[in-house]
């Protein structure tokens, strides 16, 4: 049976995202100096929005380790109608699956397809850290911290992201909530008190990053 690792929706949004006539907000794009080859991207995804999210990750130094994991394993990243994976998963933002052949797949809820690719990239920076079948509170705290700080870095690069009104994109609401919790020093407690993590051990094999080690220049 495949090893299924569920990454909780501590910021679940139950309402469906209204259909939009755009693939991504019209923010001015930075020059594409990602250095990522089309072949490397295609090993992860053939979805244009996901490919743009991967290229965006190269703009933020803190996301570089996660990007390396995504490309080198590689992990496949796809948008997915989450309820097709199980009734209880309909509102999950993301789900990581490791099958019997060791293939890693990160499913991102289809409702986030029209969110800014920078928000998708921030969440992928977190999910890529879950690169084995084991999980722990320590790993989750580090993952959420990376996600929050990558989002903060994107908002400095793209000030337009800070002007998005609440409720427009559920994934942006999630990222802004994480930003607030991290800035207030409450992110560790915010993650550790999440009911979805109540049965996780404090530590897991092979994971040695502390949240305190994660800095903008990591």
Secondary structure elements and their pairing?
Blueprint: E1 3-7, H1 38-44, H2 48-57, H3 64-72, E2 75-80, E3 94-98, E4 104-109, H4 117-127, H5 137-157, H6 170-183, H7 187-192
Parallel strand pairs: 2-4
Antiparallel strand pairs: 1-3, 3-4
Topology pattern, helix = H, strand = E: EHHHEEEHHHH
Continuous helix count? 7
Radius of gyration: 16 Å
Which segments are poorly predicted (pLDDT under 50) over 5 or more consecutive residues?
Answer: 1-32
Main pleated sheet = 4 strands, mixed
How would you classify the helix and strand content by structural class?
alpha+beta
Strand content: 5-15%
Number of domains: 1
Helix content: 25-40%
SS elements, strand count: 4
Overall body shape: globular
Major sheet: arrangement of strands: 1-3-4-2
Amino- and carboxy-terminal Cα gap: 36 Å
Mean pLDDT: 83
Detailed description of the structure:
- The protein has helices at residues 38-44, 48-57, 64-72, 117-127, 137-157, 170-183, 187-192, and strands at 3-7, 75-80, 94-98, 104-109.
- The protein is of the alpha+beta class and 218 residues long.
- The protein has one domain (37-213).
- It has a 4-stranded mixed beta sheet with strand order 1-3-4-2.
- Strand 3 (94-98) and strand 4 form a beta hairpin.
- Helix 2 crosses helix 4 (117-127) and helix 5 (137-157) packs across helix 6 (170-183).
- The longest helix is centred in the last third of the chain and has 21 residues, at 137-157.
- The chain is globular.
- The chain starts with a strand and ends in a 26-residue tail after the last helix.
- Mean pLDDT is 83; it is low at 1-32.
């Amino acid at each position: 049976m495949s090893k299924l690792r569920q990454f909780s929706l501590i910021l679940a949004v139950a309402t469906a995202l209204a259909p939009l006539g755009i693939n991504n907000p019209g923010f001015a794009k930075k020059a594409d100096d990602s250095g990522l080859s089309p072949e490397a991207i295609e090993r992860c995804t053939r979805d244009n929005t996901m490919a743009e999210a991967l290229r965006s990750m190269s703009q933020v130094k803190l996301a570089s380790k996660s990007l390396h994991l995504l490309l080198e394993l590689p992990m496949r990243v796809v948008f997915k109608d989450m309820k097709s994976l199980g009734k209880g998963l309909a509102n999950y933002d993301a789900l990581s699956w490791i099958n019997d052949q060791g293939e890693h797949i990160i499913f991102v809820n289809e409702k986030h397809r029209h969110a800014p690719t920078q928000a998708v990239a921030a969440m992928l920076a977190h999910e890529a850290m879950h690169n084995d079948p084991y999980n722990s509170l320590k790993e989750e705290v580090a993952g959420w911290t990376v996600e929050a700080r990558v989002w903060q870095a994107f908002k400095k690069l793209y000030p337009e992201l800070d002007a998005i009104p609440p409720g427009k994109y559920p994934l942006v609401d999630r990222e802004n909530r994480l930003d607030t919790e991290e800035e207030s020093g409450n992110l560790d407690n915010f993650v550790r008190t999440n009911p979805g993590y109540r049965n996780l051990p404090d530590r897991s094999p092979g994971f040695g990053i502390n949240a305190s080690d994660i800095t903008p220049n990591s």
